[in-house]
Design goal:
The complex is a heterodimer. By secondary structure, chain A is α/β, with parallel strands linked by helices. Chain A contains 23 helices and eleven strands. Chain A has a domain of 75 residues. The N terminus of chain B is likely disordered. Classes of the chains: A alpha/beta, B alpha/beta.
């Protein structure tokens, strides 16, 4: 399963190949001529556009050179937007069409609070001005841990920090009033250990509303990245091998049956939030991605079928490496997938969702968080992320209130729609001297981590030795120490402190009355299905015990069973996860 | 900073301060708590870390069994008002009402929340921006009181306090068995578990515990987990509870012991703790886990060769012990009643099994080697090892 050493070698080999081609362009006249001709053709194909003040601009900015070596360096080393190795962008035009009115916005806003109907109302509020339907769901703690709302000791957590989902009926309420079969609809769910159960509920709820034929049309992403859970976020229910098996079952089911769905979002966000440096975030995340590719391939899946359905999710903070993190990740992924996994172009493209850094936001003088998020948004878009979430300034205290969620959303619109930075021209920054230096340094640092993990036996073996957890914790402690020592300035916390009293901001909290209502609904559901549930759980248990595809059965189980009932059933077969320090 | 609700004695404690730290149920944010654990240990405090996603009942059970000075909770995803109150209330109900609870949650716990939580019994809340140094100084000043005998303590708390007194070098009460089964005096079977660090002793003990709980619907088991104190600071992070998923049960008495300078592989109070547990008549089985040892003398004999502290010794090792010469040096392989080769899913396991069996055959004592993979759920090797322990226990009766 471990191919990290090979991947690191393949990136170095590709870099040597680029260098050799650059040299050849400078010494081989025939090659030089061919490159110049291609360059001229590309240039001729670029349309012209105009800024609102009348300046004429090409829709794609190319380096101002006719020197064959420089041309080769750009075309092979970075690639045109949408071309291998994809350093500049996954697609040719990215945001250009979107802001001019034909495509979908990259903005994707994360929401989840209280009961399903509360989150549904927030979705309707946030989406009122959006052209396309892009929803992103946060779940509460009990749901993330696969527990029912009536589980002992969780009542205070019901609907806190995200929406409470126990049953398919909650899922139906969550998306009421939205046409999920629209071509431009897309639903994202931040859900990991119980992702198979929750996605099965989503499918069941959609079938109830739009008929059984709707499944191939459903579009969206479920996070489901269990490796980063074990390494950083700690929301794990089942032992690691069982968790990975359930995930692969889901991916294998989704690829043919739900071709517009991304069944995994390989996430560095939580790795970074738990303390990792930008380089560690990228290295661990890419390595996890290659591990999933290896696991799926070992099960007999075709890389060209599952490859395009893998998606990625990175954190964007304020450290300088974030200027290039997305660019470097796309490049390493493309080279590794092409060279080591023999993937075709569609399966080489790293599709990226970015979220601004939650850790960078602080409670003290919290309105500065608006500026922090704005800078991070700018960095995210400079990396040509495919979609982006901006955090709300009030997040250090609470699930975002409407006021700050709106400001966060408008921040994106100001950058993408008011400002002209991303509207007119692709490749505004690629090839800048500072970026190139950063790219090289960050890439080499990532490969060094790959090689270290390779000597430990790969991601899974390193994980067993707590390698990633130790590195993340160590980096987190360093970050804190730098803040206390003042070497990492945080305005309002350790620098230019005004000693303002903590603000009293309105809090989005779930009332005990609502929490009890959720429990009552769950009990009514269980009662209604008390006769059918045991047989459904028995069927699920049999599939789990005998190595069948658990996801295929879950789609039926959720019709009559709650999340907690299913978790308990599967735990009975595969056991519980043993946490690591 | 919240003001202290109560003032406490500033008398120097007889031993290091003991703090239980945990993250509430349905919360996996452990980055703050791990930073604080390290700081606490660096300041000479013994930290018993319970882990993340912990229900109030597990926190209270651990606080009582560990007889800690104070409980520290790190909560980052809401529901703190209800949760802290639940911990405080359950502590009161469970005989730990004297154990204060403090906590923090960055910006998620507001000033208004903290006031309400303090009215509901939480001792104090640390807000975002509190410096670690001032927090440590205050914790030591505020919670560092010495443990004294307390005749009102009952059940596990009384046992736990007796062990604390023994750890402090004070005289401790041997609590007489309150009940005896079949009229005969109740006997506990005591197994010492030793082995090099990283062999998977803690996981194996937890798996044996799950076998015990399944096989004895009414019985109780006790675990004494010894871990090293830091030689310079005197602090310790006692983290065995984190991965002890089956030990979160009222039928399990789990006590973490820091070695506090003892070099035998056990806390100097371990013999007393074993006596206390045995005398209580509560436990059918007592498992004593040494710190990572192997080549040195037997930790389960007084002075390494004197009278035995345990009825049987289980030696656990992993396949990567470093070759035949290293194997010869492991003194405990001579004396161990049971030997487990854990992590048998490791590529070296096959060779290791043959080498260790040959090493045991030299002893001529008919010792069997038990191949186990404790990290695997329902491992039949662990089943067989547990059966062997039961066999020894039955023979001794």
């Amino acid at each position: 399963m471990n191919s990290l050493g090979k991947i690191a070698d393949s990136v170095d080999a590709y870099n040597r190949h680029v260098a050799a081609e650059v040299a050849r362009a400078r010494t081989d006249p025939a090659f030089a001529t061919a490159l110049r001709e291609r360059w001229a053709k590309i240039r001729a194909s670029i349309e012209t556009t105009h800024s609102p003040t009348g300046t004429a601009l090409p829709r794609l900015a190319l380096p101002q050179t006719d020197e064959p070596g420089a041309i080769a360096e750009y075309l092979l080393g970075q690639g045109l937007p949408g071309e291998f190795p994809y350093a500049n962008a996954a697609y040719r035009e990215m945001y250009l069409d979107k802001v001019s009115g034909t495509g979908e916005e990259p903005m994707r806003l994360f929401a989840g609070l209280g009961l399903a109907e509360d989150t549904n109302a927030r979705f309707h509020y946030l989406g009122q001005h959006q052209k396309s339907l892009r929803l992103s769901t946060a779940f509460d703690g009990p749901t993330l841990y696969g527990l029912d709302s009536d589980h002992e000791g969780v009542l205070g957590k019901v609907g806190e920090g995200g929406v409470a989902i126990d049953t398919v009926e909650d899922m139906t309420r969550l998306f009421a009033g939205f046409d999920l079969t629209r071509k431009d609809a897309s639903v994202s769910m931040t859900m990991n250990a119980p992702a198979p159960m929750i996605l099965a509920m989503f499918i069941a709820a959609a079938k109830r509303r739009f008929g059984p034929g709707c499944v191939p049309n459903l579009r969206g992403t479920i996070q489901a990245d269990m490796l980063k859970e074990v390494q950083a976020q700690n929301e794990v229910i089942f032992p690691i091998d069982a968790s990975l098996r359930f995930l692969c079952d889901m991916i294998e089911w989704c690829v043919p049956n739900m071709p517009r769905w991304y069944p995994v979002s390989i996430s560095g966000y939580h790795i970074a939030e738990a303390g990792a440096t930008p380089v560690q975030q990228a290295a661990f995340t890419l390595a996890n991605g290659f591990t999933y590719a290896g696991l799926l391939r070992a099960r007999g899946a075709d890389v060209n079928e599952f490859g395009p359905r893998l998606s990625f999710f990175l954190d964007c903070g304020l450290d300088v490496e974030y200027l290039v993190l997305g660019r470097v990740c796309r490049r390493i992924w493309a080279i590794g997938m092409r060279e080591v996994f023999a993937a075709n172009p569609k399966a080489q493209i790293l599709k990226l969702h970015t979220q601004t850094s939650g850790r960078s936001l602080i409670a003290a003088e919290f309105q500065n968080n608006l500026t922090r998020t704005a800078v991070e948004l700018m960095l995210s878009y400079m990396n040509y992320t495919n979609s982006c979430h901006s955090n709300s300034a009030d997040e250090p205290f609470t699930t975002p209130t409407e006021q700050y969620a709106t400001l966060a959303s408008h921040g994106q619109s100001i950058i993408m729609e008011e400002s002209g930075v991303f509207k007119h021209m692709m490749n505004m920054f690629g090839g800048a001297p500072g970026l190139l230096i950063l790219e090289r340094q960050v890439e080499q640092a990532i490969l060094a981590v790959f090689r270290e993990m390779n000597t430990l036996g790969g991601v899974l073996a390193a994980q067993e030795q707590r390698y990633q957890r130790s590195k993340i914790q160590e980096a987190g402690h360093n970050y804190e120490k730098q803040i206390y020592a003042g070497t990492r300035p945080i305005i309002g916390l350790n620098k230019y402190v005004n000693d303002e009293p903590m603000p009293s901001v309105p809090l989005a909290r779930t009332s005990p009355r609502k929490q009890r209502l959720q429990v009552e609904r769950l009990r009514a559901f269980k009662q209604k299905h008390a006769k059918k549930a045991p047989a459904a759980l028995q069927r699920l248990e049999n599939v789990a015990r005998h190595g069948g595809n658990v996801f295929a059965e879950l789609v039926n189980t959720v019709e009559v069973c709650s999340l907690g009932q299913i978790t308990a059933c599967l735990s009975g077969v595969v056991g519980k996860f043993r946490p690591m320090v | 900073m919240a003001r202290a609700k109560t003032t406490r004695s500033t008398a120097r404690p007889a031993g290091p301060l003991r703090i239980l730290t945990a993250v509430p149920i349905c919360d996996g944010h452990d980055s703050a708590v791990t930073t604080i654990n390290i700081e606490l240990a660096r300041h000479g405090i013994e930290v018993i870390y319970l882990g993340y996603h912990q229900p109030a009942s597990a926190i209270v059970r651990a606080a009582i069994q560990e007889d800690v000075n104070v409980v520290g909770l790190s909560s980052y995803n809401g529901g703190h008002i209800v949760f802290f109150k639940e911990v405080v209330d359950q502590l009161k109900k469970g005989g730990g009402g004297d154990i204060p609870v403090f906590g923090g949650g960055g910006g998620t716990i507001t000033q208004a929340d903290a006031r309400l939580m303090q009215r509901q019994g939480t001792d104090r809340i640390y807000f975002a921006g509190t410096s670690l140094d001032s927090m440590m100084a205050e914790i030591k000043r505020h919670y560092g009181r010495a443990a004294k005998p307390n005749a009102r303590f009952k059940g596990d708390r009384a046992l736990a306090r007796a062990i604390t007194l023994a750890e402090s070098g004070l005289s401790f009460p041997l609590l007489p068995a309150p009940r005896s089964r079949n009229g005969a005096p109740h006997r506990s079977y005591v197994v010492g578990v030793a082995g090099p660090g990283g062999a998977g002793k803690s996981t194996l003990i937890d798996e044996l515990t799950s076998r015990f709980l399944q096989g004895n619907p009414a019985g109780r088991i006790a675990i004494l987990a010894n871990d090293p104190s830091h030689p310079d600071t005197g602090g310790a992070i006692l983290g065995d509870r984190v991965s002890a998923i089956y030990s979160q049960d009222d039928r399990v008495f789990f006590r973490s012991l820091a070695t506090r300078g003892s070099l035998t592989g056990l806390s100097a109070a371990a013999p007393a703790a074993i006596d206390i547990l045995k005398a209580s008549g509560e436990f059918d089985l007592i498992l004593v886990e040494s710190v990572g040892v192997g080549q040195e003398s037997d930790p389960f004999r007084i002075f390494g060769r004197g009278p035995k502290l345990v009825d049987a010794t289980l030696f656990v090792l992993a396949p990567y012990y470093g070759g035949l010469i290293q194997l010869q040096k492991i003194a405990l392989l001579n004396g161990a009643d049971l030997v487990a080769l854990n992590k048998c899913d490791h590529p070296m396991a096959h060779t290791a099994r043959a080498e260790i069996q040959a090493r045991l055959d030299q002893n001529g004592r008919g010792q069997t080697l038990h191949p186990t993979t404790a990290a695997k759920h329902f491992d039949p090797g662990v089943d067989a090892l547990y059966a062997a322990i039961l066999g020894l226990s039955a023979k001794s009766k």
